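Complex 298.
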Amino acid sequence: MTAVIEVRQLQKRYGDHEAVRDVSFTVERGEIFGIIGRNGAGKTTTVECIEGLRRPDAGSVTVLGRDPRDPDVRQRLGVQLQESQLPDRIRVDEAMGLFASFYERPAAPGPLLERLGLAGHGGRTYKKLSGGQKQRLSIALSLVGSPEVAVLDELTTGLDPQARHDTWRLIADVRDSGVTVLLVTHFMDEAERLCDRIAVIDRGRTVAVDTPQGLIRRVPGGVTVTFRPSGPLDAQALAGVPGVTATSVEDGMWTVQGRGNLAHEVSTALAALHVVPLALNIVQADLESAFVELTCAP
Ligand SMILES: Nc1ncnc2c1ncn2[C@@H]1O[C@H](COP(=O)(O)OP(=O)(O)OP(=O)(O)O)[C@@H](O)[C@H]1O
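Predicted structure with adenosine-5'-triphosphate bound:
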């Protein structure tokens, strides 16, 4: 795969405040790459450097191999506007036409609006759109220049569960159509479901870059396996099994905690001992637990 965005040891300060201290990650072509972090972690500042809106104090940022302020990059990068950035009275087709006029190779607005479920709404003013329609319009506007890379910020804020799921499907379709997506989100379920890889930013630093499952596997005790052995099992039987961090037994029910591919490792170890795990149950941590684990307490 080819790097579409490269951020290397990025630093950015506002006066005395170090908003970004050391952020590095590489976004590959064709992936949905998420940036997650607490409020004030430095996500927006990082993304603004990628969009060419801010100049790094130190470190480097390239988009499609070039400086983000290069006019060619601006033609190939789509950015989602925040809700408040469109005037109430602008009509959907006017907004699409206006944004299309900024680009050399704009997409045809009709099919794009149709793809985003806005067909037939071209004559509506922005103010009259529902929250979900506004959000979909902002996505349509980010795609109207036929970009190779789309930067989406707080994609599903304020949407109902159905609209959120529809939006996720839509973004996965956008990725599948060949657009690389950089997604900034506060929602762990969104990042876990949608992103191919994620950078976790904490207090201006990247603390991890991995797939959602890779981040989850880092949680110590992130997987809990419970079972009742079919036959006698020595209390130390699973102590040396890879990934196991703790075991306990209560009323004949075993609880094994650990990380990684724990269920497989435990099953293999039990099979070697000719023990069958009855009433087997596996509970896995989610991205939220991984996030809490990876980021410091305030
Ligand atoms: N223009 C600015 N002037 C001064 N400080 C700023 C400015 N923009 C952001 N900051 C500060 O820099 C830090 C990082 O802000 P940033 O907006 O990049 O974080 P964020 O992770 O996007 O936060 P949020 O999730 O709340 O949007 C915060 O402490 C913020 O208050």
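The chain has two domains: 3-210, 217-294.
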